[in-house]
Amino acid sequence: MVEVRRPDPEAIARAAALLRSGRLVAFPTETVYGLGADATNDAAVAALFRAKRRPAHNPLIVHLAEAAAAESFASFDERARRLVARFWPGPLTLVLPQRPGSPISRLATAGLDTVAVRVPAHPVALALLRAVARPIVAPSANRSGRVSPTRAQDVVAELGEAVALVLDGGPCAIGVESTVVDLSRPEDARILRPGGVTRDELEAILGPLAEPSRAEAEAPRAPGMLASHYAPRLPVRLDARSVAPDEALLAFGTNEPPGALWTFNLSPSGDLFEAARNLYRALRAADESGARAIAVVPIPKEGIGEAICDRLARAAAPRPDRSSAPEGV
Ligand code: AMP
Ligand code: MG
């Protein structure tokens, strides 16, 4: 049985010792549960890729207790400093140029000359990172391509024995992953993945962000163009206006078409933050509902709704080969 512990000081000390010895430890962050490994230890990072069955070309985010701890291996420009001052600790990941001689495992960065860094806001994550005093890679604690875990029991269901210890910090407050912003080029800043920090919040600091055109982002994709990810077992049907009797329904606000086998309203009051917090738990529960498929009503794309819609689009994307479903942006 995998060890699941309340994150008291003793459990955090044990988790830190396990990480320093190259083992994998799952811990809560404000976004989702992360699967941690020592970012400077090639063998530990390789074990993490194996545990998640994550393709080696998909780089990992390096987590730190404070921004200063990243200065030795990542190059912060003026834009990065402004974002750090406003959003760290918090659900924002920065992709920055990596300094020569960086101690970060090249497996963690997939051999790129950039590195993704974040200081999470969860007190348990911060206590653990302080105790380890090393950079820690921590992708979501799920099998690659699957629904991310927002509770300790989800981690156990996903990874079982592959993880040495799970710190149980209760359900995650934000419920979707961090926003990933690419600052590796001085001439533009781009959102690589929408997430817990919204586009409007970023643009208030950075000005307008470069991005793929709306048409590119919204057009129905040819099979394979949109990587399947965040996928429950059941097929997902988006923008549902009505629902079949053998479908599970994810509703939102007052938009709850009748007739589903099973219904989960992501936020009866129409609050997008509540919907984000409930999204992955709802997809997991829908899988267990006995339905044939999952229908989802339209979700507004504003604010954190952009991240919700991104995850749902990937959950609904064609799954040409589930056994090798890629994970990534
Ligand atoms: P996760 O799988 O939730 O840990 O997500 C990590 C995300 O950060 C993925 O979408 C990665 O592709 C992205 N990422 C990490 N490092 C880099 C990097 N150096 N350049 C671009 N994207 C990165
Ligand atoms: Mg993930």
General shape: globular
CATH topology annotation of the largest domain: DHBP synthase
Q: Order of strands side by side in the largest beta sheet?
A: 1-8-2-3-7-4-6-5-9-10
Helix content: 25-40%
CATH architecture assignment of the largest domain? Alpha-Beta Complex
Outline the low-pLDDT stretches: 218-225, 323-329
Q: Tell how many strands the DSSP assignment holds.
A: 14
Tell me the major beta sheet.
10 strands, mixed
Taken as a percent bin, the fraction of beta residues is 15-25%
The rounded distance between the terminal residues' Cα atoms is 33 Å
Mean pLDDT metric: 93
Question: Could you name the CATH homologous superfamily of the largest domain?
Answer: DHBP synthase
Which CATH first-tier class of the largest domain would you pick?
A: Alpha Beta
Count of discrete alpha- or pi-helical segments spanning 4 or more residues: 9
Give an overview of the whole structure.
With 329 residues, the chain is α/β, with parallel strands linked by helices. It has 2 domains: 216 residues, Alpha-Beta Complex (DHBP synthase), CATH 3.90.870; 85 residues, 3-Layer(aba) Sandwich (Rossmann fold), CATH 3.40.50.11030. 28% of the residues lie in helices and 17% in strands. It is built from 9 helices and 14 strands. The strands form 2 sheets. The protein has a 10-stranded mixed β-sheet with strand order 1-8-2-3-7-4-6-5-9-10, with helices on both faces. The protein has a 4-stranded parallel β-sheet with strand order 11-14-12-13, with helices on one face. Helix 1 packs across helix 4. The chain is globular and about 60 Å long. The C terminus is likely disordered. Adenosine monophosphate binds next to strand 6 and strand 10. The site of magnesium ion has 4 residues, from loops.
